[in-house]
Amino acid sequence: MSRYRRYDGGDPLAPPVDIAEALDAIGQDVMAGYSPERAMREFLRRGGQDQSGLDDLARRVAERRRDLLQRHNLDGTLEEVRELLDKAVLEERKQLARDAMMDDGDRAFRELRLQNLPDSPAAAVTELGDYDWQSREAREAFEQIKDLLGRELLDQRFAGMKQALENATDEDRQAINEMLGDLNELLEKHARGEDTPEDFDEFMAKHGQHFPENPQDIDELLDALAQRSAAAQRMLNSMSAEQRAELMQLSAQAFGSPALMEQLDRLDANLMSLRPGEDWGGSEQFGDGDPSTTGLGLGDGTGVLQDLADLDALADQLSQGYGGARLDDVDLDKLARQLGSEAAVDARKLQELEKALRESGAMERGFDGELRLTPKAMRQLGRALLRDVAQRMSGRQGQRDVRQAGAAGDLSGATRAWEFGDTEPWDLPRTMLNGVLRRAGDPGGRLLSIDDVEVAETEARTQAAVALCVDTSFSMAMDGRWVPMKQTALALHTLIGSRFRGDSLELIGFGRHAQTMRIEELTALDARWAKGTNLHHALLLANRHFRKHPNAQPVLLIVTDGEPTSHLESSGDVFFSYPPHPTTIALAVRELDNARRLGAQTTFFRLGDDPGLARFIESMARRVEGSVIAPESDDLGAAVVGSYLGSRRGGADGRGSGPGTYGDWFGSRGFWVG
Known about the structure:
- It is a single chain.
- The chain is of the alpha/beta class.
- It is built from 25 helices and 14 strands.
- The chain has helices at 20-31, 36-46, 54-71, 76-98, 104-115, 121-127, 136-157, 161-164, 170-191, 197-207, 218-238, 241-251, 259-274, 298-319, 332-339, 341-359, 375-394, 428-441, 474-478, 482-498, 519-523, 535-548, 582-597, 611-623, 636-645, and strands at 72-73, 294-295, 363-365, 371-373, 411-417, 454-458, 464-471, 504-510, 514-517, 553-560, 566-568, 574-576, 601-606, 627-629.
- It has a six-stranded mixed sheet with strand order 9-8-7-10-13-14, sandwiched between helices. A two-stranded parallel ribbon has the order 1-2. A two-stranded antiparallel ribbon has the order 3-4.
- The two termini are 54 Å apart.
């Protein structure tokens, strides 16, 4: 058997979920100090450029809840009773005035009784319970009050009963009483553990038309009934004491018999016993007293209380604030009912995005159970950062062109005759021209000879040992330089790892002490409160890296926003002093001299505008014939990558023609981002 229902899956032609934007945002948050798990949650909360997030859905849920409370009051049933009572009294008075045959004493007594009715609708209905109505219209209006109360009380427990029992006959009312009796017997049998599936099937076969939820077993039936019954109780709890007293007094008049109320009280007791976990004691603050609000009947009010319960559940699910929370917990059917199908589509996209992030290989669980970015995700994030660096570099005035020049090195513009063993690319225009010129003197010769071949000269590419020393003292985080520092390290790491694999990069973070770090450790590093800038220790580690690669050209890149304030003593302890101690300065300068003796080309990247720091770093750079660059935080990555690539030709000695130029030993690095 085939079943069909309204399609609610969003645009079937929409492209599959794209996690690139999510990974970029997650990576930024990770570098800002968030854990990958929290970073993923934060992105799902914010959403993307064209994607609503959890916070937006939660805001709409809160607005819907506030609107339901402000737009309604709980006087609906009492107002209907009052209107029907006023109609009955008016029609009766008209009849008394028209009836000329009535005894004057009887007329006066009836008019006096109608005139002295209590202000309370419930008391008035009770007072008129034994009144002998002379007007047919008045009698019908008064009977409608009893019928209305019965239908409202049933609609509280069974959705749709108010409409279904409109103009009901005595046989219909008897059928309802029989259903309630059978239902209570089934629930009491279930409470004793004596019921069977056949009992449920028999009940549904007989009374299933009253249960549009179409429960498949007694537990589903119990859940549906208990949720609505608890909502009805919360509605009563939300009323004022006067409203509750009025309704309790009126309920005895339902269908003109107390039997209905007895069965409903029995049903409520059974449901509270079988489902004690439902919210039976809650209440809400409706807009009572505001003339602009709409009155709710008992049935409609119970439906609104159920809506409010659904909205509360959705708010909890969208908050994801409980242990083990997953977006799969969000009830899409409830969301569609309360906010519309588009909201459900947005939530489904977020569920797919979360699933894609977990299954794409971009995130993995470590041995400690913590979620972390995989090398694949780090490479993707690094490529994105490199593209940003390339855009910044290409926008600078006077920046050299960085288009691809050749596989073996960068083209010099010159050509030469091919020799055995050459791997340089052929210069095809020169080669073909040589063949044409040769055949001009020998028309019968070959179209192309090996002697015609010329190759394009390329510059040599020298291996480099790069030490990137980044300041990880708290001032970097305090002044907003923490994330740009990490972005710079990741961009350079990605560039060397993907384009210049012959180079060797060492990442060194230095705060109160220094340590070498893997890129995953540095990008996940939290801001540290410990004071200290131990450049001495960082240079010790950098020089050790240079000595491990004696055949590579040393490149020292130092990113800092402060003078050295700590150093490593011979015992291994860290000494700290502010202002900087002369010994700290002397040890840092000594290691910087050692780096120069190893042939290192040094560049300082000074962050901040402190004049004292500027003078200190300038003097250190002059000492080792290095250079100083003072970029803005946003330009730090472009500055470091540009220094690594080399922006000017150097002298023939391979040391460069001036401070900060890396010369021909670096060569033109070619096109490095793609």
